[in-house]
Amino acid sequence: MAPLGLMTAGASWLAKSFSVLQCLSAPYITPVKYLSSQASGPPKKPENGYLRFVLQQRPDITRQFPGIKTVEIIRKIAGQWRMLTPEQKKPFDEAAQQAREQFKIDLHRYQALLTTEQFQQETQEKKQRLAKKRSIIQKRELNTLGKPKRSRYPINMFVSEKFAEARGLTSQDKMKSVVQDWRNISLHQKQIYTQLAQDDKIRYKNEIRSWEEHMVEIGRPDLVREKILLTKSKPAAKAQAIKKGTKKVIDTVKKDTASKTVRSK
Asked: Which CATH number fits domain 154-221: 1.10.443.10, 3.20.20.70, 1.10.30.10, 3.40.50.740?
């Protein structure tokens, strides 16, 4: 059930991402200045100077370049922002500073109205959001560093092969039909994907070990499993012990030579 849950969550995430992109491509709408969509909700953290500039320039760019992609819009506006002088940026930064001060006042008023239980719930939700944000940042970093993809389950192998030709108009419908097909195929057919998953597990085991050893070499042991660190430390500890032993023998020989020299005199 775990693999199926992961795939369902993945499909849901794709659908949400598509909805976000649709919203970004919609006509520009002036956002609410401080509060969230819920009147009883917490005040919304204000935009910084750059984002205020983006919101101001976006309608103009959209009119000048009909049909332009959102990524290109942001790229053009970012270029315009870089060309502004400090004096030209000053109004946006000052507006952002005023909004931050008002946000602190609104937040204090909002928190004063919360019960102890509501405040604890808000604190817990904030921790969860921060943890999710850190997780996203870490995943991006790992992708940049080329961390190998995890091995897949047999059902994942089946879904990746059949999803493109699956029945249904939406991603969720396709996923449901593929999962249903997986349940209906014979054990002999499933064995093929089981073998593919076993081969993929070997692939991942070899690649992740090589990657982790490389991370240790470039000074990123924080990204490595503990057992890899222990394995890497054993040769170093052994070499250090040999070095100490050799030094001890040399020191002993020097002492014996010095003693013989003194006695001969």
From this structure: 1.10.30.10
